[in-house]
TrEMBL record:
It is found in: Periplasm. This is Heparinase II/III family protein. It comes from Shewanella algicola. Gene3D superfamilies: 2.70.98.70, Chondroitin AC/alginate lyase. Its main location: periplasm. The keyword Metal-binding does not apply. It holds the Pfam family Hepar_II_III_C. Keywords: Lyase, Membrane, Periplasm, Signal, Transmembrane, Transmembrane helix. The chain crosses the membrane at residues 20-39. Residues 392-599 form the Heparinase II/III-like C-terminal domain. GO terms for cellular component: periplasmic space. InterPro entries: Alginate_lyase_dom, Chondroitin_lyas, Hepar_II_III_C. The keyword Transmembrane applies. One of its GO terms (molecular function) is lyase activity.
Length: 763
């Protein structure tokens, strides 16, 4: 094998040779420009923790408190590992396989054992890390590209270079921890056998990834930059910051510029924001330790700290909103956000971050986490504010937005309106989709990703084929599908060129609303969607109003699905169920995965009060009624379809979830609906309250750029949601009037909830 490796090295391309000479020239240029070693580069550790942190932690482990508890738990864990033989296996498996997971455990074990050495001074811990690193130094130079390489970003230790970068981010810190006890010979062996080859593999030998503005590139630049600080290689740090050629076309700083919006929203969504956060905050901390003059945490108006707060805020009941390729079980207690919260608190001592840290229930052995532990011991935490917010997307904040509408306490109602850009390859084709939460549970849901992370029996732990055939497709989401095709025809490159337009976001007491549109998801269809979350204190009621208008020059089939969590209770229209044989709803674009359970022909059977109502019971013991205004235009063919996921799924990879789909044949159509939480079911005490909807009727009125939804409750009380779609909000001096059935209702601002109304008419 060694001869083969040497042969490969001897046939290095002329281009790579030129790159090496270029690096030497750049190094000379750096010296001429006065770019020298960081002031504290010779001291160790010098990355996420420094010598002052070690001294403070050594004192803390002698005192009772949360930090001492964390130290004892980690010490016990490390001691168990110390009694096990070191194994550095030849890489064979993909994600979730034995060798893959063993190398992951190894880098974590080296990191943990190294920090225990720093805190105890017991050289047996340093010896263990050294011996493992020596084994890696013997193995790595012999390795070819991984036998189960996943894609163009292949690794050697792992199936993809991303994991290789994660390995180095942890391993270079472990090496930094034990550096002082190593002999020069041992350092040379470890650095030339493992550390340097991995760093070069991630950078010079993988320029397509290293220079990429993507989370894979972030991990690679962080790994190489941190290695540069430990090995006193300032050129490596500069290349990590500004790309291999120092041209600023890639690198860590370019990633900070482009991957986050001005509000700290990451373009791939909260799940990948959580994952990408680790290299961002870890490398930034290393930069701050070594070169505070760069003021990295002040860059772009404090974008890294904003990103940490935004990640925490984009959660509900401790779980991250599952946008795009998201594993739905990931929450704020992930190690990446634990690190981020600790580093942020170490910088700004924000007491609301302690609230998140308390929920995370994890104390790390770092100087910043020590401050968190001390803050919690002193009960300094204050509630983290989960507010209604608009999070702009795009590096300039002009590529759509994610809108989160909240009402009351953190586990009360929340409506998530996704009007963001595509989110690169991990994005889903779900423009203007939504989710709804209440009493701690998902009510109107998003599927997230079709993947069983690190479970090798399910496609090696990677994304399942159904992630493409179902989870990414538009019908898997709660948004408009035209002619059973997905947005942008399911083409990522096309989708990345476009984004929705945000028309307005407005927050008032008891009323939050937002409106957005897109005309590029389909060639011949434009659609606009407005959501409002309304609190009516006098009724002790909260409702969500949804207005979606589709326009086209020709007739289309419009499907508007609602993927709901719970058991169907009732509908106010007749359904024709498939009792003995099921058929699929379609043949492609996700439709092939849906069993058609029942159909209601709303054109032939007009539901009561022109409302098509579906009521279900969620596991939280509450009822939810979704009432949709049915068009009285007899020329429109209208159906309600009830489906269950699981068709064309031979390996049973998909969860058996249910949905109902409002289908209309039309050129122009406006969908108007209201979601209403109500009642209570207590099976333990055997009582049921308010199982039926309180909404009796809806009407929709359009008057030029003004619109209104007229709501009548079953007790006769009526309300009017009036909305101004003009570019400018109305003032009291420039108020407008909406005329409904001869009655004029003046209003100003962006929108108003008027009522209770003193009128007996409702048409």
């Amino acid at each position: 094998m060694k001869k083969n490796v040497l042969k490969q090295q001897s046939t290095t391309s002329i281009g790579r040779t030129l790159r090496y000479f270029g690096v030497i020239l750049v190094g000379i240029a750096l010296a001429l420009l006065g770019i020298n070693l960081p002031a504290n580069a010779a001291s160790h550790p010098n990355l996420v923790i420094n010598q002052q942190d070690v001294a403070a932690m050594q004192q803390a482990i002698t005192e009772q408190g949360a930090f001492q508890d964390a130290f004892k738990a980690k010490l016990n864990q490390v001691d168990i590992g110390l009694n096990q033989s070191i194994e550095v296996p030849l890489p064979q498996d993909g994600g979730g396989g034995y060798t893959h997971e063993k190398h992951k455990r190894n880098y974590q074990q080296m990191y943990d054992t190294g920090i225990i050495y720093q805190l105890t001074g017991d050289k047996k811990y340093a010896e263990y890390v050294k011996n493992m690193l020596l084994q890696y130094a013997a193995l790595y130079p012999e390795l070819p590209v991984h036998p189960k390489r996943k894609n163009s970003n292949a690794g050697k230790l792992f199936w993809q270079g991303l994991n290789e970068a994660v390995w180095l981010v942890h391993t270079i810190q472990a090496y930094d921890f034990i550096y002082p006890v190593l002999t020069q010979t041992e350092r040379n062996t470890i650095e030339t056998g493992a550390i340097i080859p991995v760093a070069l593999f991630l950078s010079e030998q993988s320029p397509h990834t290293f220079n990429k503005v993507h989370n894979h590139g972030t991990w690679a630049t962080a790994a190489v930059g941190m290695t540069g600080y430990v090995l006193n290689k300032p050129l490596w740090v500069e290349r990590a910051l500004y790309d291999l050629d120092l041209a600023k076309k890639g690198g860590f700083m370019r990633q900070l510029d482009e991957l986050f919006s001005p509000d700290g929203y990451y373009n791939e969504g909260p799940y990948y924001q959580r994952y990408a956060l680790m290299p961002f905050v870890t490398f930034a901390k290393a930069i701050e330790q070594n070169e505070p003059q760069r003021k990295i945490f002040e860059y772009r108006d404090g974008i890294i700290l904003k990103a940490i707060n935004t990640t925490a805020a984009l959660s509900y009941n401790k779980l991250l909103f599952p946008l795009n390729d998201a594993i739905k079980s990931k929450g704020i207690d992930t190690i990446e956000l634990v690190n981020g919260v600790a580093i942020a608190y170490g910088l700004n001592a924000d007491p609301t971050l302690l609230d998140i840290a308390k929920q995370q229930n994890t104390i790390l052995l770092t100087g910043d986490s020590l401050k968190v532990a001390q803050g919690l011991d002193q009960q300094l935490q204050q509630p983290f504010t989960f507010n209604s917010e608009l999070y702009r997307d795009g590096k300039q904040g002009d590529e759509g937005a994610l809108v989160v509408m909240r009402n009351g306490k953190p586990t009360d109602q929340a409506l998530v309106y996704k009007a963001t850009a595509q989110g690169l390859g991990h994005g889903h084709f779900d423009k203007l989709t939504w989710q709804f939460y209440d009493q701690g549970n998902e009510i109107v849901s998003d599927y997230g990703a079709a993947r069983f992370l690190n479970i090798e029996a399910k496609s090696g732990g990677g994304y399942l084929p159904e992630n493409t055939s179902w989870a990414k497709q538009t019908i898997a989401h709660n948004t408009l599908v035209v002619d059973e095709t997905s947005h942008f025809n399911g083409k990522v490159k096309q989708a990345n060129k476009h984004h929705p337009t945000i028309h307005f976001y407005d927050q008032q007491q008891n009323l939050t609303l937002a409106s957005a549109s897109i005309d590029s998801a389909y060639d011949d269809v434009a659609f606009k969607r407005t959501f409002a979350l309304i609190n009516i204190p006098q009724r002790e009621a909260v409702i969500a109003v949804d207005i979606l208008s589709a326009t086209s020059s020709q007739s289309h089939q419009y499907d508007l699905p609602v993927h709901y969590q719970g058991q169907l209770i009732d509908t106010n229209f007749e359904r024709e169920a498939s009792l003995t044989q099921l058929s699929t709803l379609g043949s492609d674009n996700g439709y092939q995965h849906l069993w058609l359970l029942a159909t209601a022909n709303l054109s032939q059977y007009q539901p009561r009060d022109s409302l098509a109502r579906v009521t279900w019971l969620n596991d939280n013991g509450r009822f939810y009624s979704h009432s949709t205004l049915v068009s009285t235009n007899t020329g429109k063919h209208q159906q309600m379809l009830f489906t269950q996921l699981g068709a064309n799924d031979p390996n049973m990879n998909l969860r058996q979830q249910t949905a109902f789909i409002y289908r209309v044949e039309a050129s122009d159509h406006t969908f108007v609906s209201v979601l209403e939480p109500h009642g209570k079911y207590n099976p333990a005490k055997e009582f049921t309250l308010g199982a039926t909807s309180n909404i009796a009727a809806l009407t929709h009125h359009q008057q030029a750029e003004l619109s209104a939804v007229h709501i009548r409750f079953t007790d006769g009380e009526q309300y009017l949601l009036a909305i101004n779609h003009l570019e400018q909000a109305l003032t009291e001096q420039n108020q407008s009037v909406i005329n409904i059935n001869g009655v004029q209702y003046p209003f100003n601002g962006r929108a108003q909830l008027l009522g209770p109304l003193n009128t007996g008419s409702f048409n």
